[in-house]
Amino acid sequence: MGSRNGAVERAVAQSFLDVSAAEKSFGSATVLGGVDLQVAAGEFVSLLGPSGCGKTTLLRIVAGLLAADRGTIRLDGEDISSKPPHRRDVGVVFQNYALFPHLTVAENVAFGLKARKRAATDIDRTVRQFLELVHLTDFADRSVRALSGGQQQRVAVARALAVRPKLLLLDEPFSALDRKLRETMQIELRRLLRELGTTAVFVTHDQDEALTMSDRIAVMYRGAIEHLATPEEIYRRPATAFALEFVGLSSRLAGTVVANEGSTVTVETAFGPLRAPGNFVTGASVLLAVRPERIRVNAPGDYALVARLRDAVFQGSKIQLHFETDGRDQLMVETADLTDGVPAPGTEMKLGWAVPDTLIYPATA
Amino acid sequence: MTAPAVHTTAPSPWRDPVILLALPAVIYLLVVYAYPLLWLLMKSFIGPAGPTLQPYISFMSDPFNWRVVGNTLRVAAWVTLFCFLIGYPAAFALARAGALVQIVMLVSIILPLSIGAVVKAFAWQIVLRRDGVVSQLLVGLGVWDDPQRLLFTETGLVLGAANIFLPFMILPIYSVVKLIDPRLSEAGATLGATPFYSFAHVTLPLTLPGIVSGVAFVFSMSVSMFVIPSLLIGDRFQTLATLTGRSFLLMRNEQLGSTTAVILLTLAVAIVVGSTWLARRLGGST
To answer: Which terminus of chain A has fewer Cβ atoms in its 10 Å neighbourhood, N or C?
Structure first.
């Protein structure tokens, strides 16, 4: 806990990238509503959210490809808000890679170095070094059109990194790759960026990608950052109901606060009264949530509720149990305790969890 | 067994029935166009006493004819350059415009093609007169002290011809620009390339095929235009095309006409093929 908060504090105190109050509207549609984001040097931060949440807009504003209506962007202590993209020292890996189709692999990687008028021997050496880093040495003289998706993605990464930008932005760079390749590339990219000490901001709508790769995740929704924290924190204590729903699975029960005990409240739900840590006024409509693996089946807990099994999904190392609810609620459990086998639908089961594991949010209409 | 076999190797053009779809066009062009053209052109090589190069020798030995060749190439080069300079940016505007604007622009480019060169050339006569719009504008702006006539000058000819051939420059470049990913310029910028560097090393090489076809179209059309110079500059200024026309229509000198036609054809083909080859080489080495 302490180290995590420490990381966050460090990021804010000596933020390398500092976006403050960035706003952008297209016509009457507000795409970004005053976003703040601080990223520490060497950090890998993901912008995670559904399409249309403003994550790509934010990335394009940082790169200078789009002008913000308001707000400032500081990079390495310098205000770059009004600098053109070619003078920002911010590299971008585009979703479709945007490789130069008329150039070879090596010429693509050399492009930024040549544009910056580096010495020819320096360019040669750097290109060779980066092609090696992405395992494309043998493809140096190939046309980029002749490469597979994964190879093109690696060229795009090598091209962006070869100029050693202060900041690397990645716009869903894995979305066009198949699942297996994507996982390999995620690990490779993370290792490469760590080796080079590159600060990176990564845009994705894929929660697994964000969870496995990031130092911190910014969950974005409707042009705002809902929660910015470590993957663990986001999963354990999502700050908002949206962050809860967008990252990971959860059981969710709607209810009304019937008693306030100071640090905990009692909530009346369709499954009876349940307790949760929090401070809500009596009568408030709330949403209770629990991560499915925190729920114990037929075991003593702080309390228990009884639910009827709707169906059970066998997933190898675990079983997912879905229970009958009255429509809006969702009650699901993941258990690795497979000794009794897969229970039959219709079975009544006792469920329990610890009060501190209960998440509580004000109900959204 | 007439059913087409599954191709295990590259299909031979003679086996592929699709090629037969071109047959009507090929026959039509061969019978009613290529054969008479060849027959006409051959006339320049046949004298009263059999095969001869005499018409070419006498053509070359007349300095007037060299001036005609010069006129032809110079005007065509100016028209092509002018079309390129205003057509290239226009093609980008067209390719990057919104759907509705694009339709309006395309219609305004293509529709005038149906008006015909004669009508347009007459319209330009009005524009280029001493009391025409251009003259009045330049005097009004203080560029010229007195109204001047652009009609029957080379400048007037270039202006008028460029207007008529402009669509043939814009459309092929537009079709290439439309296929270029706008992200490529952005990628260039994020790599530290100035807009000019990105243009020179990304956009220009990628639009080269469109430029080559636009230049080939406009140049070959301007080198052979007949009606436009006749109406905009008159008989005092001869090009290979107008000389060819005069030879057949006025002088009834079929041999001179076919000689100038062969020279015109050779020059046009050589320049178009040569510039295409040059552009491919330049494009390939970028």
So the answer is: C
Backbone torsion region of residue A84, taken as left when φ is above 0, otherwise alpha when ψ lies between -120 and 50, otherwise beta = beta
Distance (Å) of CA B156 to CA A155, B80, B152: 52, 15, 7
Q: Is the pLDDT of residue B279 over 50?
A: yes
Q: For residue A343, what pLDDT is reported?
A: 85
Domain boundaries, chain A: 2-245, 249-362
A316 CB-contact burial (10 Å; exposed 0-12 / middle 13-18 / buried 19+): exposed
Kindly give the pairing relationship between strand A331-335 and strand A264-269.
unpaired
Contact B191 A91 (CB under 8 A): yes
Look at strands A216-221 and A224-229 and give their pairing.
antiparallel
The string of pLDDT tens digits covering residues A324-365 is 988 789 999 998 876 777 888 998 888 988 889 999 999 875
CB of A302 within 8 A of CB of A273? no
> A183 with A215: CB under 8 angstroms?
no
Rounded mean pLDDT, A32-52: 95
Nearest CA in chain B to A164: B191
Domain boundaries, chain B: 64-285
Give me the architecture of the A2-245 domain, per CATH.
3-Layer(aba) Sandwich (3.40)
CB-CB under 8 Å, A100 with B193: no
Q: Are B245 and B226 in contact (CB under 8 A)?
A: yes
A18 sits in which H/E element = strand A15-26
d(CA A70, CA A34): 8
Q: Distance between CA B182 and CA B252 in Å, rounded?
A: 57
Nearest to A111 among B191, B194, B195 (CB): B191
Q: How far apart are CA A270 and CA B185, in angstroms?
A: 57
Decide: pTM greater than 0.80: yes
Q: In angstroms, rounded to a whole number, what is the distance separating the alpha carbons of residues A53 and A36? A: 15
Interface touch B181/A90, C-beta < 8 Å: no
Q: What is the pLDDT of residues A277-315, one digit of tens each?
A: 988 999 999 999 999 999 988 876 556 788 999 999 988
CA distance A282 to A273: 13
The beta-carbon neighbor of B192 closest among A94, A101, A116 is: A116
ipTM: 0.84
For domain B64-285, give the CATH number.
1.10.3720.10
Cβ-contact B84, B169 below 8 angstroms: yes
Judged by a CB distance cut-off of 8 A, whether residue A27 touches chain B is no
